[in-house]
């Protein structure tokens, strides 16, 4: 094990997957010599060549559409969309083609394509660089959607996504790219076993009073909130890191909420029709008699993502999370 | 009333009256198109653009031409049968290829078994050439499937409804061929080309431009075969382009050629040339097959609302099957018995298609949950179980009522 940043953990995971399977190819804008704008693919073109780490024209629909054709030829393309807001030119190919081909062909054609998207805010970027588009993809049958929150998960989950025979939208919490954590050395999915399947949620912190449900960039915020509440002695908070957004690991969520009786969902995406709405509905169906309070949501507002100077007002922070916890406990 | 001004050359608003000028321009290239058999059925001495391509069909025998005639008659017959089946309520929709038989059979016959086709939703003739049984194509139009066939079985991808999407898939597949060293080896059974079919309307889509960019910069072995049938539902060429479509590809660094799409021999020649070029590693090509959609866009369409009868009559004189029949009869390469045999065979295939359509089983409702994912997906699996339990409740009631 060694201490590695989340971005470098994904790099290590990509490298391991490319070593394991010669059919794995990377595609995207500036991913070659530059190593991607976040350097996630740093050094890979140098080691694997231009045929496997493909610098593409600046055309997102083209990137995903050609990845579909490569997958039909037996390749496992991992495409990088440079920023969340740039995925929309590729939205048609992802939703109308990538998601549906397996079903349309009665299972004859499988498209093991991974669409990597650095997502979310908090880095002071210009517009279209800080969005959380997960609901669009979770809403689409045929896609899997996953988001790691820690370097260790990032290392294993990117390999699991690549090995998966289904298309996976892989949402990387960009403001956590520099977070450090322990990542195993010298192993890969072919040589070792990941601690947890990609589709499973993880109880990141156990607690008795209220469950915080979160994923990606919000996991660290929620864990910090839980520590703060513990220090203050106000609440013993359980934090569930969803990891997989499609499918949702409903049993893990339900088990936690049935233990605590309270749930608060936290995400950066706008609240309207976001993951929080889905989770609230499922929790009230499964936990109606266990709930001590309504399921609450903390998230972005139902507005366009704001200008960077005021993004801290938009993004859920420790205080907004704790405020929701207080409201839940007040019932 | 700006709408009435558009298309009126003498209209008062010059900015809106360019419509006809554009149409004239897009047709201008007609003089430059490759043609080897005249509409009257005469084998032409290759001239102009045709000189470059005639060599690619020097080996074509009368037997080959009889084969192409047979294919076109069969394809037209099963297409008309499908149209009839739609009118009788057996199909929800049908996209007829009437008038485009030569473009499809000529290009389809140019392909080798290993070549891979990415069709639109109208490539019934190409499917026939690739060995896809006609009945396989009906499921989508009957509402019994969303496509359903295995693309790898005949190297024929699923029909694509979203205009132009498939041109990118074709390009990606071609990029895979390069990585598999299935291009430019000189081995005829190994070197492979991909053909992406598209219509004139699709050339306006961003995906088609992106496919041209990707294929050009990677030198991918893909041929774009555009059947310009003059109408994108109700919109004429002039609403898609200011230049002849075959010239557009040159801006991407891809050679383009216009061929008489109603001339099966010329279509065979240019497709052979372009696919051979792609297989040998010289990169993508673009073919504009100048043809005409004689029927409606689909059975839901009413072309009498937007095009004049005289135009259709003019194209009837260029019928792709009639001219080959005239050629075969004139040269004595086929006799009445041959033509009668082909008719009989086409009729038999149509009859078989009718039966296959009417006896096609509806899918089981729970099949909607199948194949969505390759591996179990907890949410979809749970919904399937809930649905089955719900339906089983009705089964109990029916049993009880019957007892």
UniProtKB/TrEMBL annotation, chain A:
It comes from Aquipuribacter nitratireducens. Residues 4-179 form the Transketolase-like pyrimidine-binding domain. One of its GO terms (molecular function) is oxidoreductase activity. Coiled coil: none annotated. The lineage of its organism: Bacteria, Bacillati, Actinomycetota, Actinomycetes, Micrococcales. Gene3D superfamilies: 3.40.50.920, 3.40.50.970. Its EC number is 1.2.4.4. The keyword Protease does not apply. This is 3-methyl-2-oxobutanoate dehydrogenase (2-methylpropanoyl-transferring). It comes from the Bacteria. Keywords: Oxidoreductase. Its cofactor is thiamine diphosphate. InterPro entries: THDP-binding, Transketo_C/PFOR_II, Transketolase-like_Pyr-bd, Transketolase_C.
Automatic annotation (TrEMBL), chain B:
Residues 20-30 have a biased composition (Basic and acidic residues). Keywords: Oxidoreductase, Pyruvate, Thiamine pyrophosphate. Residues 70-353 form the Dehydrogenase E1 component domain. Residues 1-30 are annotated as: Disordered. Its cofactor is thiamine diphosphate. The keyword Transmembrane helix does not apply. The keyword Acyltransferase does not apply. PANTHER family: 2-OXOISOVALERATE DEHYDROGENASE SUBUNIT ALPHA, MITOCHONDRIAL. This is Pyruvate dehydrogenase (Acetyl-transferring) E1 component subunit alpha. The lineage of its organism: Bacteria, Bacillati, Actinomycetota, Actinomycetes, Micrococcales. The gene is pdhA.
């Amino acid at each position: 094990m060694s201490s590695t940043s989340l971005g470098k953990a994904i790099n290590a995971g990509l490298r391991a997957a490319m070593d394991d399977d010669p059919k794995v190819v990377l595609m995207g804008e500036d991913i070659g010599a530059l190593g991607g704008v976040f350097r996630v693919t740093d050094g890979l073109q140098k080691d694997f060549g231009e045929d496997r780490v493909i610098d593409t024209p600046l055309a997102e629909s083209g990137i995903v559409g050609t990845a579909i054709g490569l997958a039909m030829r037996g390749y496992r393309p991992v495409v990088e969309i440079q920023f969340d807001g740039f995925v929309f030119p590729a939205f048609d190919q992802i939703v109308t083609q990538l998601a549906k081909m397996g079903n349309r062909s009665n299972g004859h054609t499988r498209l093991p394509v991974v669409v990597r998207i650095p997502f979310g805010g908090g880095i002071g970027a210009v517009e279209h660089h800080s969005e959380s588009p997960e609901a669009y993809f979770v809403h689409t049958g045929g896609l899997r959607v996953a988001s790691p929150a820690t370097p260790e998960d990032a290392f294993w989950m990117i390999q699991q996504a690549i090995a998966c025979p289904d298309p996976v939208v892989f949402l990387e919490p960009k403001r956590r790219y520099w977070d450090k954590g322990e990542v195993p050395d010298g192993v890969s999915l072919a040589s070792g076993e990941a601690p947890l399947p990609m589709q499973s949620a993880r109880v990141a912190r156990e607690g008795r009073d209220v469950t915080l449900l979160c994923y990606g960039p919000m996991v660290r915020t929620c864990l910090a909130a839980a520590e703060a509440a513990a220090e203050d002695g106000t609440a013993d908070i359980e934090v569930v890191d969803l990891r997989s957004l499609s499918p949702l690991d409903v049993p893990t969520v339900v088990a936690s909420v049935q233990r605590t009786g309270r749930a608060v969902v936290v995400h950066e995406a706008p609240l309207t029709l976001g993951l929080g709405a889905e989770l609230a509905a499922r929790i009230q169906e499964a936990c109606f008699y266990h709930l001590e309070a309504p399921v609450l949501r903390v998230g972005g507002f139902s507005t366009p993502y704001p200008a960077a100077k005021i993004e801290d007002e938009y993004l859920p922070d420790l205080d907004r999370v704790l405020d929701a916890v207080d409201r839940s406990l007040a019932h | 009333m700006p709408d009435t001004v558009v298309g009126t050359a003498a209209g008062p608003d010059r900015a809106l009256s360019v419509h006809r000028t554009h149409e004239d321009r897009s047709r201008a290239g007609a003089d430059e198109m490759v043609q080897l058999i005249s509409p009257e059925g005469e084998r032409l001495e290759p001239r102009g653009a045709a000189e470059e391509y005639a060599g690619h069909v020097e080996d074509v025998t009368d037997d080959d031409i009889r084969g192409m005639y047979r294919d076109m008659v069969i394809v037209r017959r099963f297409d008309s049968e499908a149209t009839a089946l739609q009118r009788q309520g057996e199909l929800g929709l049908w996209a007829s290829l009437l008038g485009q038989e030569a473009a499809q059979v000529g290009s389809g016959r140019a392909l080798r078994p290993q070549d891979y086709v990415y069709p639109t939703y109208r490539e019934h003739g190409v499917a026939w050439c690739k060995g896809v049984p006609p009945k396989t194509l009906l499921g989508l139009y009957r509402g019994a499937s969303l496509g359903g066939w295995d693309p790898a079985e005949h190297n024929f991808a699923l029909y694509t409804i979203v205009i132009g999407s498939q041109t990118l898939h074709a390009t990606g597949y071609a990029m895979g061929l390069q990585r598999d060293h299935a291009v430019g080896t000189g081995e005829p059974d190994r070197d492979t080309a991909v053909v992406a079919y598209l219509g004139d309307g699709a050339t306006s889509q961003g995906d088609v431009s992106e496919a041209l960019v990707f294929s050009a910069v990677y030198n991918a072995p893909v041929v774009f075969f555009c059947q310009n049938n003059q109408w994108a539902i109700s919109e004429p060429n002039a609403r898609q382009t200011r230049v002849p479509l075959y010239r557009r590809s040159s801006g991407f660094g891809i050679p383009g050629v216009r061929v008489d799409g109603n001339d099966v021999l010329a279509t065979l020649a240019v497709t052979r040339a372009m696919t051979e070029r792609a297989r040998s590693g010289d990169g993508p090509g673009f073919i504009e097959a100048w043809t005409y959609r004689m029927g409606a866009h689909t059975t839901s369409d009413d072309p009498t609302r937007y095009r004049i009868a005289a135009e259709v009559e003019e194209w009837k004189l260029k019928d792709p099957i009639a001219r080959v029949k005239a050629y075969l009869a004139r040269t004595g390469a086929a006799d009445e018995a041959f033509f009668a045999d082909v008719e009989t065979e086409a009729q038999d295939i149509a009859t078989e298609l009718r039966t296959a359509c009417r006896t096609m089983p509806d899918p089981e409702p729970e099949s909607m949950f199948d194949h969505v994912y390759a591996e179990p997906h907890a949410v979809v699996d749970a919904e399937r179980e809930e649905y089955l339990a719900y339906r089983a409740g009705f089964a109990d009631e029916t049993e009880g009522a019957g007892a």
